[in-house]
Amino acid sequence: MMSLLWKGIKLETSMGSTEFASMVFALIGMSQGVTLLLAKSLLFFCDYERAYYNEYSVGFSGVLFALKVVLNSQAEDYSSVYGILVPTKYAAWAELVLVQMFVPNASFLGHLGGILAGILYMKLKGSYSGSDPVTLAVRGVTRLVTWPLRFLNGMVRSRRRRITGRGRVGRGETGIAGPGIWRCQSCTYDNSGWLSACEMCGSGRARGNGWSLNQGPALSSSNDLPIDELRRRRVERFS
């Protein structure tokens, strides 16, 4: 698990979560498929009494070897594998031999299948431009699973936009901002035609205050609100 954490952080950071997940899914199938082909080949050429694919093995180490190949495929430096200095791109091969020496019961064929799967994955990746089918499938499943969350998020954002107001503030020359809209002469806020009071400052829609589609621009009222009173009403309105 520590090996997966170390390799996963580097690979997922460089390629993104979706592509990393699709790569892991692909390597799981490829490593197991290559291991099965190797077992079939050994049975065919060496004629074992008991086929290797009838033996039991469990673990994620074959995929870890494949991830190691992918991670070090472009490396040009050297790494220390159990105290032995080897080129980093060939570290997986050295680790394959050394692990088998120290842990004889480890699945040599499973580890070898993982290394070959990593090499095959890099070959296929280099010869194919664009998103591979596995990546597209993972993206589709991710969008399907997260659809309820995105739907709720859209509803919350839409409600927030409605709460913040439906009008506009400004002192334009044109009086009609849209059908069914009247402009308050005190604060120049465009209000819905259904409202009888300004949504911004609270001034009533009396004669001489604002205009609508069926009404021309009103004459400026001589008793406009003072600026201090207008500010006080806005604070009370939105506090």
Q: How would you describe the overall organization of this protein?
A:
A hairpin with a 6-residue loop joins strand 3 (181-183) and strand 4 (190-192). The two termini are 53 Å apart. It contains 8 helices and 4 strands; from the N terminus they run αααββααααββα. It is mainly α and 239 residues long. It has helices at residues 2-15, 17-46, 61-71, 91-102, 108-127, 133-145, 147-163, 227-238; strands at residues 78-81, 84-87, 181-183, 190-192. The strands form 2 sheets. Strands 1-2 form a two-stranded antiparallel ribbon. Strands 3-4 form a two-stranded antiparallel sheet. It is elongated, with a radius of gyration of 35 Å. Mean pLDDT is 75; it is low at 163-179 and 210-223. Helices cover 54% and strands 6% of the residues. Helix 4 (91-102) runs antiparallel to helix 5 (108-127).
Descriptive keywords:
8 helices; 4 strands; two-stranded antiparallel sheet; elongated; 54% helix; single chain; 239 residues; mainly alpha
Main sheet makeup:
2 strands, antiparallel
What structural class do helix, strand and pairing data support?
Answer: mainly alpha
Strand content bin: 5-15%
Count up the helices: 8
What Rg, in angstroms, do the CA atoms define? Answer: 35 Å
Helix content: 40-55%
H/E series: HHHEEHHHHEEH
Number of strands: 4
Mean of all residue-level pLDDT scores: 75
As residue ranges, the low-confidence spans are 163-179, 210-223
Q: End-to-end span in angstroms?
A: 53 Å
Chain oligomer state: single chain
Major sheet: arrangement of strands: 1-2
Shape: elongated
